Amino acid sequence: LARTHVNYGVKGDVAVVRINSPNSKVNTLNKELQSELVEVMNEIWASDQIRSAVLISSKPGCFIAGADINMLASCKSAEEVTQLSQEGQRMFEKLEKSTKPIVAAISGSCLGGGLELAISCQYRIATKDRKTVLGAPEVLLGILPGAGGTQRLPRMVGVPAAFDMMLTGRSIRADRAKKMGLVDQLVDPLGPGLKPSEERTVEYLEEVAVTFAKDLSDKKISLKREKGLVEKLISYAMSIPFVRQQIYKKVEEKVRKQTKGLYPAPLKIIDVVKTGIEQGNDAGYLSESQKFGELAMTKESKALMGLYHGQVLCKKNKFGTPQKDVKHLAILGAGLMGAGIAQVSVDKGLKTILKDATLAGLGRGQQQVFKGLNDKVKKKALTSFERDSIFSNLIGQLDYQGFEKADMVIEAVFEDLNLKHRVLKEVEAVIPDHCVFASNTSALPINQIAAVSKRPEKVIGMHYFSPVDKMQLLEIITTEKTSKDTTASAVAVGLKQGKVIIVVKDGPGFYTTRCLAPMMSEVLRILQEGVDPKKLDSLTTSFGFPVGAATLVDEVGVDVAKHVAEDLGKAFGERFEGGSPELLKQMVSRGFLGRKSGKGFYIYQEGVKSKSLNSDMDGILASLKVSPKPDVCSDEDIQYRLVTRFVNEAVMCLQEGILATPAEGDIGAVFGLGFPPCLGGPFRYVDLHGAQKILDRLRKYEAAYGKQFTPCQLLVDHANSPHKKFYQ
Amino acid sequence: ATQTNSKKTLAKPNIRNIVVVDGVRIPFLQSGTSYKELMPHDLARAALLGLLHRTNVPKDVVDYIIFGTVIQEVKTSNVAREAALGAGFSDKTPAHTVTMACISANQAMTTGVGLIASGQCDVVVAGGVELMSDVPIRHSRKMRKMMLDLNKAKTLGQRLSLLSKFRLNFLSPELPAVAEFSTSETMGHSADRLAAAFAVSRLDQDEYALRSHSLAKKAQDEGLLSDVVPFKVPGKDTVTKDNGIRPSSLEQMAKLKPAFIKPYGTVTAANSSFLTDGASAMLIMAEEKALAMGYKPKAYLRDFVYVSQDPKDQLLLGPTYATPKVLEKAGLTMTDIDAFEFHEAFSGQILANLKAMDSDWFAQNYMGRKTKVGSPPLEKFNNWGGSLSLGHPFGATGCRLVMAAANRLRKEGGQYGLVAACAAGGQVCHSSCRGASGK
């Protein structure tokens, strides 16, 4: 019988089990793979010739990327998911108890279920390259490691390290994994030999793994790992019940503080680990499978998995391969944005010109890029040599030399239409015909910028988010005239820069700024009603926003917020009303521009972390005070006034065709604007929590405040027919 | 020079013929032995004196002196000049020092070739030196900074305030890096990966190392290593021969643990070259000058190439890249070559290179060539031992390789020699020389 996912061969007395799912770049633990693995292992256990086994993947860059999440999604009940978990547990328990030693030979991603499989084996050998990462990212999908991971990981790396892995979901590189005791041996990747490097490296990994498997079965090496002093101390400390209780407590406190109780998975992970340690394995495994089932059914998990799918979607170029690969990039303006764009470009090997008008401005930008790279050196993500060679891709200059070779120019000059026009004309005089002109703007309509262009089909918007090297989102804006190839080119560059990309139609505020603006207008209103900025911040963060609403204004810049509010206010009229723009105007005139000027709603000082309120704001707020409306000013109402305006505007963007898909809307809101990930984005939120509920809220606020809360037609449609969903 | 079995001439129109009159080296010793109290220029001086004695060349004829070295003694950073002055060369003879890792002496020789070919000089002494018994170990950067600042401090107060910043960790010393600067990988580690990439087994490597030691021993016993000149070390006995040649048994070698990739690597102390002290020197002249002075040159220096590759994965693969290039340049093929002298950094490195040269796949995918160049036949390859057994003083090995090729051509009656060496930074020098045979 031919197997499609798992096969094995025998070398001497060692079985080499090769995992290779057909028609996929990665291996995922699905039902077929699991059942084939069980079959193969049964044959190995039954064979007299075989004394040990090696588990290895035939896929370059991937051991096992995790469990198949569609398998979970298709489950209808918690019980069904629990059963899946128990099947996995049983299989891995067999591996763990195998009398024939099993060596996991890991090259590439070993995540989730892949990690759980690996730690059930008796020995682990990993290639020491950047692609090889081990991790338990389940928490990021709102679930937990459901195939024994919560029980085995703490035993293997100690409780604190296991909590860290499972609660953050962070990926661990091979060399770090070795130090933690997560893998037993490392194999260095090989260069070219008589075969391509990758192929030979995996072959070598297999050879090394086979010798270790042999030595294990011959008892030449012991499975007992030498523990370091620190490890010994930790494991001693963990043997004292009091210490353990303290650790659970501390971790729980920290999790509660960070998740604000909005994410159920981390707390359940702590609970399950605790059960295993305090009440024994059987109780631990049982608890793991039950909690796994419960979590998989939560709205939070569905929201997070939706985001995962959306992210995968937004990492593809649906506009095809551009005619010309962008090799030479030029960026205008070495400010925060320009330098940030330069940094994410040079570190992917793009030759990048960074042009500014002044030497001082340019120097600041170059330093920003250098610092960004150097911080990676400090974190050991780069060597100093790699930093230097990457930094050599950056050419700083004040003139247009070399622009005749540019394939794409991204302008990131000040947000002023006249300036953008001037720059565009200057650039078009020096660039070659095929060169794309991209404008990094958060609100200026691209068609207005393109109005002075000789070749509007080559003009496009690329809206990056600050700080560019940290924020994953890139919003690409196309006008009626932008050609498909130009779009393909912009998406290709964005993907190269490591961005998650949404492509939207041109219009005032595009998608992201347009959703944010009504919410910001409501923020002003709420502040005018006398809610103090700290309280407002805590109300928004406890709803799941990563940054409080008042802080967000400071971070974005009060002047920018004012600009946007005025522009979009003009374009959309009463729907964007709410707070008084006068508030922002007065702040700007007093020089309270937010973090960049040291003062906004808060006072910012270099080196001081805790920020205090800017008392000079009291007068401004007092002079603009309006009285709150008693039936819509509870804490909950304040939260919903903000969120429903956001959601309503997002749905409006889909209705108007600014957005092509709800998935892009969700990704844009979460990755660009910090919309609560536990809600999955505005569209997923409507789907999961019900359009009617949101509609009711909007109607209530509409009655109190007026048209800015009038629900859009598409939302009304969804409320009227409950089977209508943005995601089918 | 008269040629009896000339296949073809490599002389080029309008370019002067350049000859090696002769070359010598002091015995290569494992570091930490008889030379350990000396300084690098002492070794270089001994090599120069040996060369003067061997060739009887009048000191004032020498136009220029060039030495190669790798780990520089900071007190004698232009070690060529210090050694030349000490050896009694005219203080009017300029001297400079070059560095290019393990091919520093090659660089010294080819620099000399350039000077002669361009008509700048007629007579050049080229050589190399390395003293691994003593290496510059520095204070840490923080300590150095404090010491320099102290120098500038004017008042007691300033000094005290500087001293108050002293921390104990300032005292941790900075060792000269044994690793590549660009990759932080040690050479042995790279060699082990290279051997694995070409699937060179531990046994193959041990066998090759044993071959090197056995051939070196034989050559030493038969007195073939005629480039060695004795060196009376002050306060110690006269050193007359290399002391690193130790033929062992495969069983003994198999017992050693891997030195770099533990516990499963294949490169061990026994199949690697060892840290060595030594120096070499060579007298190079324009042919007409040598003949006019009545010399019978030992070899012609013909074509050479330098290549470089990726310092991570192809650090030690240079000979593979350079061999076909230099052959093409000289208009020769593999079969024309009678004596191959390749620098043996590690057994695994040599064997990987031989496999790479014998692979069409490698030639096509990495060298942009249609076919492989072919690997040199072992019976013509490093017949008198190599760096694994004779030792490898980094800066001095290049001259030893050329002299071994020249002396072998004369002894074995061959005509063309080919010399290759790999060096840190992924660079390599390759030169072909023609023995002035028949004499």
Write the topology of this structure.
The complex is a heterodimer of chains A (728) and B (439).
Chain A: E1 6-11, E2 14-19, E3 28-29, H1 31-46, E4 52-57, E5 62-64, E6 66-67, H2 69-73, H3 78-96, E7 102-106, E8 109-111, H4 113-120, E9 123-127, E10 133-135, H5 149-157, H6 159-168, E11 171-173, H7 174-180, E12 185-187, H8 197-217, H9 229-238, H10 241-259, H11 264-279, H12 281-296, H13 299-313, E13 328-332, H14 336-346, E14 351-355, H15 359-378, H16 384-391, E15 394-397, E16 408-411, H17 417-428, E17 436-439, H18 446-450, E18 459-464, E19 473-478, H19 484-496, E20 500-505, H20 512-528, H21 533-543, H22 549-556, H23 558-572, H24 581-589, E21 602-603, E22 612-613, H25 617-623, H26 635-655, H27 662-673, H28 682-689, H29 691-705, H30 713-720
Helix pairs in contact in A: 3-4, 3-12, 4-5, 5-6, 6-11, 10-11, 11-12, 13-27, 13-28, 14-15, 15-16, 20-23, 20-26, 21-26, 23-24, 26-28, 26-29, 29-30
Chain B: E1 18-25, E2 29-30, H1 40-55, E3 64-68, H2 79-86, E4 95-98, H3 104-117, E5 123-130, H4 141-152, H5 156-163, H6 187-197, H7 202-221, E6 231-232, E7 238-239, H8 250-254, E8 276-286, H9 287-292, E9 299-308, H10 318-330, E10 339-342, H11 347-357, H12 360-366, H13 387-390, H14 397-412, E11 416-423, E12 427-435
In short:
Chain A is α/β, with parallel strands linked by helices and 728 residues long. An eight-stranded mixed beta sheet of chain A has the order 15-14-13-16-17-18-19-20, with helices on both faces. A six-stranded mixed beta sheet of chain A has the order 1-2-4-7-9-12, sandwiched between helices. The mean pLDDT of chain A is 95.
Structure commentary:
- The complex is a heterodimer of chains A (728) and B (439).
- Chain A is of the alpha/beta class and 728 residues long.
- Chain A contains 30 helices and 22 strands.
- Chain A has 3 domains: 292 residues, 2-enoyl-CoA Hydratase, Chain A, domain 1; 170 residues, Rossmann fold; 209 residues, Orthogonal Bundle (N-(1-d-carboxylethyl)-l-norvaline Dehydrogenase, domain 2).
- In chain A, a hairpin with an 8-residue loop joins strand 18 and strand 19.
- The longest helix of chain A is centred in the first third of the chain and has 21 residues.
- In chain A, 51% of the residues are buried.
- With 439 residues, chain B is of the alpha+beta class.
- Chain B has a domain of 279 residues: Thiolase/Chalcone synthase (Peroxisomal Thiolase, Chain A, domain 1, 3-Layer(aba) Sandwich).
- In chain B, 34% of the residues lie in helices and 17% in strands.
- Chain B contains 14 helices and 12 strands.
- In chain B, strands 1, 2, 3, 4, 5, 8, 9, 10, 11 and 12 form a 10-stranded mixed beta sheet that branches. Chain B has a two-stranded antiparallel sheet with strand order 6-7.
- In chain B, helix 6 packs across helix 11.
- Chain B is globular.
- The N terminus of chain B is likely disordered.
- The chains are: A alpha/beta (728), B alpha+beta (439).
- Chain A: Its EC number is 1.1.1.211, 4.2.1.17.
- Chain A: It is found in: Mitochondrion inner membrane.
- Chain A: One of its GO terms (cellular component) is mitochondrial fatty acid beta-oxidation multienzyme complex.
